[in-house]
Structure formats: C-alpha cells, structure tokens
Amino acid sequence: MALGSVVAAVTALALLILIRFLYIVLRSGKSLHGKSQKPYSTLVILGSGGHTAEMLNLLSVLQKDRFAPRFYVAAATDTMSLQKARMMEDSLVDAVKHLCLYFNDTAGVKVGETAKYMQIYRSREVGQSYVTSVWTTLLATAHALYIMIQLRPEVILCNGPGTCIPLCIIAFVFKVLGIRWSSIFYVESIARVRRLSLSGLLLYKLRVADQFFVQWPQLHRKYPRAEYVGCLM
User: Fold this and answer.
1) Which of 67, 105, 119, 126 falls 20 to 30 Å from 92 in CA-CA distance?
2) Quick one: how far is CA 33 from the chain centroid?
3) What pTM did the predictor assign?
4) Cβ-contact 115, 72 below 8 angstroms
C-alpha cells in the first residue's frame, strides 16, 4: 500500500510538471505581462568578440527605461566584454546627467545609474579536455544557479555565447517550478548564415527561448519557429 501511494504521488507530480511545461511552451512568445508600464529587470549575457559587439549594438536601440535595472554577465575569463558594457552605460549616465542638469532637474541626475556587472565561470574553456570539463561544468552550473537566485530577472537577452546555456536552462526550470517567470529572448549571431550555433540549437530544440530571432531568411526557412528580423548590425 505504501509503495502504491508513493507511485501515485510521483505520477501525479510528473503529470503536474508536464502540464506546467506544456503551459509554458504554449505561452512562450506572448507579450510581456499585459500592458504594465513598469520597468523589467533585465539580464544581459555577453560573449567574447563579435557576440558582445552585436549585443551592445542591439542594446543601443533598446528603451533603457523599460528594461532596468540591467545586469551584465560575462565569462570569468572575458575581461573585455564587461568593460565595453560599462563604457556604454557610463555614456548613457553622462547623457542623462547632462540633460537633467540642463533642465535643472537635480532629482533626476541618478536616473541612468541602473546597471550592474558580474562574471560567471565557464563550463569549458577553448582547448580544455572533456574529462576536466565535467567538474568545471558542475561548478559553472552551481554559479549560474546562485546568480539566478540572486537576480531573478524578468527578461534575459542573449545571442549565442555558451555562457548563456546554464543561465537560460535554470531560468526555464524556475518557470516550470513557478519560482520566477523570466522571458528569454535569443538573437542568433549574424555570423550564423546556414545553421544555428550550438547554443542556439539547444535553446531552439528544447523550446527554452520565449522568442528566437535569426538574421538570415534561410535560417528562418530551416527553423520555422524562429522569427526573421533581418541584419541588426
């Protein structure tokens, strides 16, 4: 009898999780919660080289007041990406300060100070053996879990670095468990013309991303659930 009760409880729990999963998949791609005008806390995941350049280019046209505060995350070995993000945010802060001072609005001088920066362990470095990467992957996942518990962002923006995988997976699990709903927006790199990156393929196949954007029409034809937006660079 006790064993039967345990089996029934496990079956019921599995059914509830499945229903929740299907609900999340069906809801993915819908607009953010209603017509609320409140800002959304936003996690921006940066990658080295072209990934960061593309992401900062995308952020340059973003409504900064609608996506704040902004949390920038980059790999622990990536020293340049956060510097570039900080430079962009500092220029925004300076512009806001000058504008507020011009109109004698001293209360608004600190409006632009909405960004924070942090680093995360990488699952696997370039050239690292797969044996040792098991440990580093576990460490990176634990670190990603800590960051997600700490930040609990409402929006996640990413465009392909491997760093985004544990963060996005954890965000998706949080949605399934009802801990936090984070809308995940993935923009595939412009360098991907005929096939998705590994990160993009995982998020697409697992239906983790709420909205998935590609910059080439042939990718849209190959992956019909993706949305073609043209070249953003």
Assistant:
1) 119
2) 17
3) 0.83
4) yes
